[in-house]
Write a structure and sequence with these properties.
With 333 residues, the protein is mainly beta. The chain has helices spanning 17-23, 96-105, 180-197, 205-208, 268-271; strands spanning 4-8, 11-15, 27-30, 40-41, 64-72, 75-85, 88-90, 111-116, 119-132, 139-149, 158-162, 209-215, 224-231, 245-252, 259-267, 275-282, 291-297, 302-310, 313-319. The protein has a 6-stranded antiparallel β-barrel with strand order 5-6-10-9-8-11. The chain has a 4-stranded antiparallel beta sheet with strand order 12-13-14-15.
C-alpha cells in the first residue's frame, strides 16, 4: 500500500488507504528524531534468563494487550496496563513464559490501534520497547510514530489495543471542551456531595477542583462530566496529611440538568490516599456504552482503575494490584 505524503510545517500528512477504507479520514504522522524513554530496556526474554531458557515452559494464553499513553517529542509512549479477555480488562500474567510472549508482541514493527475520546484515531507501529515504572511498578512500554486522523492531531491521551481495532463502529473523533455551564454544574454536584458525605467544607469549592473533563458516551445524547476535587493536597503522587481527601464524580444530564451518577470519596487518614483522574473512555467490551479508565494517584505510586456502567449504575470493574478499592457512596444512584 502506497502512502502519498505532503510535508507542511514539519507535519507529514499521510493518506493511508488501509485505514481510510475501514473508517475514513486523513492520517497525520508527526515525525521527529526518536529519543529513548528514561527506562530500562525491555528484557527479551524475561530479565535474568538465558536465551531459550523459556522454551520448556508451559504455553500461556494472553488476551489482546491494552496500553495507555500520551504524545511526547513527536512520538507516542504507550505502557501495557492490562489485557482484554472476552471484553473484560484483566491484569497480565507475570510468569516467565508470559513475559516472553508479551515481549514478542511488543517487538519492533508490531501494529497497535489508537483510540482517543472513545474513537479510533490512528495507528502506531512499535519502534522500541522498554520497561516503564509509570504505573504500579514495572510494566512493558513501547514508543513509536503515530499515524493519526487530522482531527485528532492534538489528542492528549490514547488508549491502544494491539492489532486491528475492536470490530465495532466508533463515532468520529471530537475533542470536547468544558464550558461555563459544565463548570458550574461540577461545583453544584460537589457541594451536594460534601453535604451527603459529611466531608470538611473547604473555604472554596472552586479552589479544590483539580481536574474537569467531558466525554461523550455513545449511548448518551449529552456529554458526561468527570471531575476531581482534592482538599488539603494536590492531584499528584506523594504523601498527604490525614485530613486530606479526594472526591471523584461523574455527572450526566438526563434532560433536566446535570446529576451525580457516580461518586467516590476517600479521606487519607481513614482510607489511604487514592485520588482518581479521568484518563479516557472506550467501549472495549462492545456493549454500546463506554468504559472509563482512571489514573489514581496514591502516596507512592499511580495505578489505573476502570469503571463500567451496568444495570445498577457505574461501578469499579478493575484496578491494578497495587491499588486500593475505589469507594462509592451508597446513597448515589
Amino acid at each position: 500500500m502506497n502512502l502519498h505524503r505532503l510535508l507542511l510545517l514539519g507535519i507529514v500528512v499521510a493518506l493511508s488507504g488501509c485505514d481510510n477504507v475501514a473508517w475514513g479520514g486523513i492520517d497525520v504522522k508527526l515525525e521527529t528524531s526518536a529519543e529513548r524513554l528514561g527506562t530500562d530496556t525491555l528484557p527479551l526474554p524475561a530479565e535474568g534468563e538465558e536465551a531459550g531458557a523459556t522454551d520448556t515452559l508451559p504455553e500461556v494464553e494472553i488476551g489482546r494487550l491494552l496500553l495507555i499513553g500520551r504524545p511526547r517529542d513527536g512520538q507516542v509512549d504507550l505502557t501495557v496496563v492490562g489485557q482484554l479477555v472476552q471484553g473484560q480488562l484483566l491484569a497480565t500474567p507475570t510468569s516467565p513464559r508470559a513475559k516472553q510472549v508479551i515481549a514478542d508482541r511488543l517487538s519492533a514493527g508490531r501494529r497497535f490501534t489508537l483510540f482517543s475520546e472513545g474513537s479510533r484515531v490512528g495507528t502506531l507501529f512499535a519502534e522500541s520497547a522498554q520497561m516503564s515504572s509509570a504505573y504500579c511498578g514495572s510494566h512493558p512500554s513501547i514508543r513509536g510514530l503515530a499515524e493519526l486522523v487530522a482531527t485528532a492531531a492534538q489528542a492528549r491521551q490514547f488508549i491502544a489495543i494491539e492489532g486491528d481495532g475492536l470490530g465495532t463502529v466508533q463515532a468520529p473523533f471530537r475533542n470536547l471542551t468544558h464550558e461555563y455551564d459544565h463548570r458550574v454544574a461540577s461545583l453544584a454536584m460537589m457541594r451536594d456531595a460534601i453535604d451527603l458525605l459529611g466531608a470538611d467544607f473547604p473555604p472554596s469549592i472552586l479552589d479544590i477542583r483539580r481536574d474537569i473533563q467531558l466525554f461523550q458516551n455513545p449511548a448518551d445524547s449529552t456529554p458526561m462530566i468527570a471531575a476531581t476535587f482534592v482538599h488539603e493536597d494536590r492531584l499528584r503522587t506523594g504523601s498527604a496529611p490525614a485530613e486530606a481527601y479526594s472526591v471523584f464524580l461523574l455527572g450526566s444530564d438526563p434532560g433536566t440538568g446535570y446529576q451525580t451518577s457516580f461518586l467516590t470519596y476517600r479521606r487519607v487518614g481513614d482510607d489511604g490516599k487514592g485520588a482518581p483522574r479521568f484518563f479516557d473512555h472506550l467501549d472495549w467490551d462492545g456493549d454500546g456504552e463506554s468504559e472509563v479508565l482512571l489514573e489514581v494517584m496514591g502516596e507512592s505510586t499511580t495505578w489505573v482503575s476502570a469503571l463500567d456502567q451496568g444495570t445498577a449504575g457505574w461501578a469499579e470493574a478493575y484496578h491494578d494490584a497495587c491499588g486500593l478499592d475505589t469507594p462509592r457512596s451508597n446513597d448515589t444512584p
